[in-house]
Amino acid sequence: MNLDPKIPNGPLAEKWTNYKASQKLVNPANKRKLDIIVVGTGLAGASAAASLGELGFNVKIFCIQDSPRRAHSIAAQGGINAAKNYPNDGDSIQRLFVDTIKGGDYRAREANVYRLAEVSNNIIDQCVAQGVPFARDYAGMLANRSFGGAQVSRTFYAKGQTGQQLLLGAYGALSKEVNKGTVKLYTRREMLDLVIVDDRARGVIVRNLETGDIERYSAHAVVLATGGYGNVFFLSTNAMASNGSAAWRCYKRGAYFANPCYTQIHPTCIPVHGDYQSKLTLMSESLRNDGRIWVPKKKEDVEKIRKGELRPIDIPEEDRDYYLERRYPSFGNLVPRDVASRAAKERCDAGFGVNKTGLAVYLDFSEAINRLGKNVVKARYGNLFDMYEEIVNENPYETPMMIFPAVHYTMGGLWVDYELQSTVKGLFVAGEANFSDHGANRLGASALMQGLSDGYFVLPYTLQNYLADQIQTPRISIESAEFEQAEQNVRAQIEKLLNVKGTETVDSFHRRLGKIMWEYVGMAREKAGLEKAIKLISDLRKEFWKNVKVSGGAIGMNSELEKALRVADFLEMGELIAHDALQREESCGGHFRVEHQTTEGEAQRDDQNFKFVAAYEYKGSESIPELHKEQLEFEFVEVKQRNYK
Amino acid sequence: MNFTLKIWRQANRTAKGHFVDYKISDISPDASFLEMLDILNEQLVLKGEDPVYFDHDCREGICGACSLFINGRPHGKGEGTTTCQLYMRKFKDGETITVEPFRSRAFPVIKDLTVDRSAFDKIIQAGGYVSCHTGGVPDGNAIPVPKADADRAMDAAACIGCGACVAACKNSSAMLFVAAKVSQFALLPQGKVETARRAQAMVAKMDELGFGNCSNTYACQAVCPKHISVSNIARLNREFLSGKIVSPLRKED
Q1: Which of A65, A213, A231, A602 is most buried as measured by Cβ atoms within 10 A of its Cβ?
Q2: Is the ipTM of this complex over 0.90?
Q3: CATH code 1.20.58.100 for A481-604
Q4: In this structure, what DSSP letter does residue B173 have?
Q5: Comparing C-alpha atoms, which of A258, A261, A226 is closest to residue A407?
């Protein structure tokens, strides 16, 4: 299949305008006859469902939790970018576009990224109108702060709970449509298969997580907004239920999976402390505005700290290595996430890590507290400091925080064209679930922007363009052979899992997979390690199907079964990630191949051979997926080696 | 650390529930309460028993999914924390810990410690939003909002919808939850327009769903993981009353 990104003609700044001017529309009477399924109620899913409901389409929306308000978008802390240029510091749509392309290490599609920058301003206006309580200055105007990868202050925020407030805004809009009856809400449902009828996505099979019922739902189009697959690493900043299964089932039904190896390791998380640990907690990137990252310069100080004989506050200024400021003087502590994470790893690998495990660096606020006063620091980051203290049992106002990188976000996802349509007709993918806008590395405060851009301002147009051809199609029956086959497929898998009756728990397999992923497919990857990982994952998968113990049955609530279904998919996904990382013989953004680095240890891209999107086509469980390449053309930005020095 | 856990087990919505005692040992003081339950569950699964069901997701105190009633208090001891942010170092070694679901007529038990809180969604659906649609809105800076108002709106908006306020209230009142939403919007010019309608519609829905009345014991505020203040209830009462008098809900509302 030819991968056609369907980029509209014309100059970059006019593409989206031209698209909207010439797209097909559906009249109000016909909208009522068209059904849309949205899977996921995070920023992308909730905003899409609300906006499509407002237009008059019949929307069904599904969420895995007990309420749409619990989607993991809620946990985003720092902020949302927009090119408003309110601070008058030189920002513009063009600059946000260039920063995002550069931040993504020139591995994203120009036209999509430009559109994202273009609608960023509408998002802020929309959220303000919804009553999102953004931070404001004393004049009553919206406040901004800085984030990594930018030299302007373009990040809007609501304390340390920006994701929560934006999600509650979208949840409110969604609730308004539920009240009107245009959107029907299904909670505690997990999508387990996509139904394709005559080459078009026409429905989903979901499991009712309370009753265990396998249910069928049909529609004229399906929107997948199910988030990322970071939990393939077991420990990540993702929520416990975050998983890649919905996207994976679509992949198995013919949607191409793009750039699976682009995973983001976030530099500022609370370090791992024990084997029983269930997840990692992020400390917002916004902390890098005022926090300075360092490790001791002298190994003997490191030793004493690890033994508890020396406190970090006792180390004099001249014996501290503010390594980001040293290596990257112009961006300092605000380098992009991939750069900051690797720099932390480099120092810890060199033996300068500061906690007992040797896997931590300091994030120090003493300079900011002296400069601004404790109250200002408290007003800015109070809730984050409190959270840190709860978890670590240390007071970050008095002693520096300890942080270490952790898996946070997946830039890869289902391949979509400019309209956010996958290679399966009628299957649209939004938010983190698609691969679209962040290239090989996402900038901070851009995930919220992308989720809402897709949902509020892109899908209402592009989905309508698709549905304009569907007005003659009557409501889709759920009694067809395709629905029956998909349902049986799901039932068979559940039966198979329950019948293994082995001796090892699902969590134990997940933990083992995570260790393989983190060790060989984590922050630094190399050929031998990746080949080893592929073998180990494949063996682990076989072992899983021979020896997993899933308690309970198919009827009623069964949390072990839910986890088993997800881990079964993670065990396949992990292999594809490693496979893609092996294929990509270059370093770019979050993908760092040890073999490909500059003499200074920076990521070394190979634009000659790898300036493409890697999109994989499923070829059956026993075959290697087929790689399709979407060549990236850069007409409007100059492709350069990234430089944050 | 070692603990005895007294956990409420209930097979489904209609089954009769009861307490079951479990012993658990070698728990790290740095483990979270939910991680301790994970360890218990892994042991139960290996023994071929049904694990204990509880809602949880983000495990960083923001999604509002976790909802345990621990030693007689929603989210356990400690101020301003959710269950997932409660660490075992807060308990005494050897302690017996009683774990129950949130109890309220409006929050029926689904299984074990999992309750149905969809009533909160229904209250929001009745009017807990600004009714603007996507697009056609003014510039974000077109209407200045005094910083103090924006800050107070944010404090009210911090509600995570966990339901601890209802679980703590002897009347199972949802007043703090409703008040937080009504206050957030009443304080902002964008939300002010619909305040009278919103307050009446949300209160009517709350009553319809079986939540009790507020009798000002402030138990809700004491257990709220996000420190939502009862002063919001005063604001809700004001908006509700003035709305009732000045612009009562009409049939078509």
Answers
A1: A231
A2: yes
A3: yes
A4: B
A5: A261
